[in-house]
Amino acid sequence: MPPSICALCNTNRALILRPKNHQKLCKPCFLRTFETEIHHTITSHHLFHRGERIAIGASGGKDSTVLASVLKTLNERYDYGVELLLLSIDEGIKGYRDDSLETVKRNAKQYDMPLTILGYEELYGWTMDQVVEQVGKKGNCTYCGVFRRQALDRGAARLGVQHVVTGHNADDVAETVLMNLLRGDLPRLSRTTSIITSTPSLTPPPPPSSSPPSSSSSTCHTNIKRSKPLKYAYEKEIVLYAHHKNLDYFSTECLYSPEAFRGSARALIKNLERIRPSAILDVVRSGEDMAKLVPGGNEACGNGCTGQTIVADEGEGGCGSANGRSSGGEMASMEMQLVMNETAVEYGLEVEITSGSLEYQTHNSQMSMLGPLVNGKKGQRPKGPAPTLRKAPRQTMGQCKRCGYLSSQDICKACVLLEGLNKSRPKNSIEISSAVKEPQESQTISATTSIQRLDLGAE
Amino acid sequence: MTDNKSEDVIPITVEFSGGLEMLFSNKRKHNLSIPRNDDSGAASNIAFLVSYLCQNVMKDPRKNLFVLDETVRPGILVLINDADWELEGEDKYEIQRGDNILFVSTLHGG
Ligand SMILES: [Zn+2]
Ligand SMILES: [Zn+2]
């Protein structure tokens, strides 16, 4: 094959084939074009305003590293006049986050941005390692995702920052659109396709008798804006940008397994891209168009309208990075399958149970219901659409009665998860020391069941 | 045709990144000498290299995390001397002496 020539400068050898339009570009033209398109996304959606302090949700991974690098470049080139900070969440996973946090620390020096690291332990009293020790590997990504979502808001509040940007890219958004489509969850699809979301001002938390997840920052995460400047950027181009700019990023798989469903959606997206690269942006645009059809749909006002931002979704994001996107991939989903198989052997078919008919509040009665199911047959697994977790319309979003965080339920997901964790912590330690079998298993199952419910509602 | 062994192999550099190095002994850069021709006598191309890597370099048993349906798994980018392999004929590209072939995964945590 004769070398291709860059379509823009007509001089250099082309190294990049753009997935969105098959344009062949040389390295300098690609880097410039990529940056200019992010600039266009930022200006056409009025994402930033002069004087704004903006926290970048930084994981040390490719997306948030590219985001930090590009935002620094653009802020200088176009004089946005914004102040950029790095905010990292330490989930407390030994051997995983340690290395990526080292990367973030180097990034902070490279980009000359102040860095804040906030730990799950500090915020919730539990590290992810402790959570996994408690609940097992199944479903732990739900904890991670729910905790992280709130952690970024709480971290931002602590920094006195009103705006958090995350590294969600077009592939992530397309994946989320597909997942919500396959779940039949258009309201959530509507919320998650929006480029800007916001956590509305919160009322003070209820009386001191309740126990907020964080003693230090539960009251003040007011009106924190979230945005995704890389929403229209292909993951492929993000990786190529990082490669050609020699950016220092860290890639690893979360040690704990992400959801298999998300992994499958991701694989589907990547397969589609191989056949028809434009498919990813097409899915994103379809998601936006469908969102407009949802009553109170979020992007009805089209590009550039900032008068009405969308209420953020508390469950947004899976596992794998501090920007809330999934580590995804079949690599992980295969491991997930293995873990599930092991779990299935261990607990009978507990992992297969869809808990649509079960309630949080009645853990004890669940146990008796679960008894026969656990030992039951595969055929008892309810199929079809998730029955009870259909999302309430956005208008009914209120605040968590425990911690004041935005929630469509009386008690937010984090508080529900924490309640389960805190309840079972002392009991299980007793159970382990005792030799009795039956009740202990039930205890574990009830904790897992609340995860099952949340799985249905996650993102 | 020649008897000289060094004429029958091509020295190349193969690199793995974006998490793929985990499948290749946690080593990013591999200096390899691959056969000049495949079993049928045709010049070695990327398709041959990929199967060669699976058979000779990859110790990890999870081959399908690298290869799917006999080609590089979707979501893994291939750069030939820094150029997107789609600009070079994809897996039909005939490997030249001294080539640098980079496999980079986009599938890992961001
Ligand atoms: Zn050019
Ligand atoms: Zn709460």
From TrEMBL, chain A:
<dbReference type="InterPro" id="IPR032442">
    <property type="entry name" value="CTU1_C"/>
</dbReference>
<comment type="similarity">
    <text>Belongs to the TtcA family. CTU1/NCS6/ATPBD3 subfamily.</text>
</comment>
<feature type="compositionally biased region" description="Pro residues">
    <location>
        <begin position="202"/>
        <end position="211"/>
    </location>
</feature>
<dbReference type="GO" id="GO:0000049">
    <property type="term" value="F:tRNA binding"/>
</dbReference>
<dbReference type="GO" id="GO:0032447">
    <property type="term" value="P:protein urmylation"/>
</dbReference>
<keyword id="KW-0820">tRNA-binding</keyword>
<keyword id="KW-0378">Hydrolase</keyword>
<keyword id="KW-0694">RNA-binding</keyword>
<keyword id="KW-0963">Cytoplasm</keyword>
<feature type="region of interest" description="Disordered">
    <location>
        <begin position="196"/>
        <end position="223"/>
    </location>
</feature>
<dbReference type="Pfam" id="PF16503">
    <property type="entry name" value="zn-ribbon_14"/>
</dbReference>
<comment type="pathway">
    <text>tRNA modification; 5-methoxycarbonylmethyl-2-thiouridine-tRNA biosynthesis.</text>
</comment>
<dbReference type="InterPro" id="IPR000541">
    <property type="entry name" value="Ncs6/Tuc1/Ctu1"/>
</dbReference>
<dbReference type="GO" id="GO:0005739">
    <property type="term" value="C:mitochondrion"/>
</dbReference>
<dbReference type="InterPro" id="IPR020554">
    <property type="entry name" value="UPF0021_CS"/>
</dbReference>
<dbReference type="GO" id="GO:0016787">
    <property type="term" value="F:hydrolase activity"/>
</dbReference>
<dbReference type="InterPro" id="IPR056369">
    <property type="entry name" value="CTU1-like_ATP-bd"/>
</dbReference>
<keyword id="KW-0808">Transferase</keyword>
<protein>
    <recommendedName>
        <fullName>Cytoplasmic tRNA 2-thiolation protein 1</fullName>
        <ecNumber>2.7.7.-</ecNumber>
    </recommendedName>
</protein>
<feature type="compositionally biased region" description="Polar residues">
    <location>
        <begin position="441"/>
        <end position="452"/>
    </location>
</feature>
<dbReference type="GO" id="GO:0002143">
    <property type="term" value="P:tRNA wobble position uridine thiolation"/>
</dbReference>
<feature type="domain" description="Cytoplasmic tRNA 2-thiolation protein 1 C-terminal">
    <location>
        <begin position="398"/>
        <end position="427"/>
    </location>
</feature>
TrEMBL record, chain B:
<dbReference type="GO" id="GO:0032447">
    <property type="term" value="P:protein urmylation"/>
</dbReference>
<dbReference type="GO" id="GO:0005829">
    <property type="term" value="C:cytosol"/>
</dbReference>
<dbReference type="Pfam" id="PF09138">
    <property type="entry name" value="Urm1"/>
</dbReference>
<keyword id="KW-1017">Isopeptide bond</keyword>
<dbReference type="InterPro" id="IPR012675">
    <property type="entry name" value="Beta-grasp_dom_sf"/>
</dbReference>
<comment type="similarity">
    <text>Belongs to the URM1 family.</text>
</comment>
<dbReference type="GO" id="GO:0034227">
    <property type="term" value="P:tRNA thio-modification"/>
</dbReference>
<protein>
    <recommendedName>
        <fullName>Ubiquitin-related modifier 1</fullName>
    </recommendedName>
</protein>
<feature type="cross-link" description="Glycyl lysine isopeptide (Gly-Lys) (interchain with K-? in acceptor proteins)">
    <location>
        <position position="110"/>
    </location>
</feature>
<dbReference type="InterPro" id="IPR016155">
    <property type="entry name" value="Mopterin_synth/thiamin_S_b"/>
</dbReference>
<keyword id="KW-0963">Cytoplasm</keyword>
<dbReference type="GO" id="GO:0002098">
    <property type="term" value="P:tRNA wobble uridine modification"/>
</dbReference>
<comment type="function">
    <text>Acts as a sulfur carrier required for 2-thiolation of mcm(5)S(2)U at tRNA wobble positions of cytosolic tRNA(Lys), tRNA(Glu) and tRNA(Gln). Serves as sulfur donor in tRNA 2-thiolation reaction by being thiocarboxylated (-COSH) at its C-terminus by the MOCS3 homolog UBA4. The sulfur is then transferred to tRNA to form 2-thiolation of mcm(5)S(2)U. Prior mcm(5) tRNA modification by the elongator complex is required for 2-thiolation. Also acts as a ubiquitin-like protein (UBL) that is covalently conjugated via an isopeptide bond to lysine residues of target proteins such as AHP1.</text>
</comment>
<keyword id="KW-0833">Ubl conjugation pathway</keyword>
<comment type="pathway">
    <text>tRNA modification; 5-methoxycarbonylmethyl-2-thiouridine-tRNA biosynthesis.</text>
</comment>
<feature type="modified residue" description="1-thioglycine">
    <location>
        <position position="110"/>
    </location>
</feature>
<keyword id="KW-0819">tRNA processing</keyword>
<dbReference type="InterPro" id="IPR015221">
    <property type="entry name" value="Urm1"/>
</dbReference>
